[in-house]
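quick one before i forget lol
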Amino acid sequence: MGKVESFELDHTKVKAPYVRLITVEEGAKGDKISNFDLRLVQPNKNAIPTGGLHTIEHLLAGLLRDRIDGYIDCSPFGCRTGFHLLVWGNPSTTEVAKALKESLEEIRDNIQWKDVPGTTIESCGNYRDHSLFSAKQWSRDILAEGISDDPFERHVVEY
């Protein structure tokens, strides 16, 4: 079985919330795809409940797309501590951390239920498992800690 970088990471040494560049893969034609670890809560100390995480996922799909050129996908970790972000190119962790911060601020301050995409039986595979209340609460708590652009040293990003 091939090695998975995330399983090689010592989860006891990281200091969430943070953005970490996992890898930059280069395709046969020179195109680059970057994979980022958007860790919102401290591994093995906390986990975002599925309703809140699911709603954050749906919102980040649009909010990060608006803020990061080359956005491909943002998918939650099964451990419910954050997301994988895939983008074309190689933006810096600081750029991604600022985009994440702005997106979480938008969720915390401005998003209403009518703004959450994909919440119907036709548009979501588990449409009943959403919680905007939880998404707002977790966004507030994550932002209160600050988002670092370094996984091991707290270097909180500002504007």
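fyi The helical segments are 5-8, 50-67, 93-109, 132-145.
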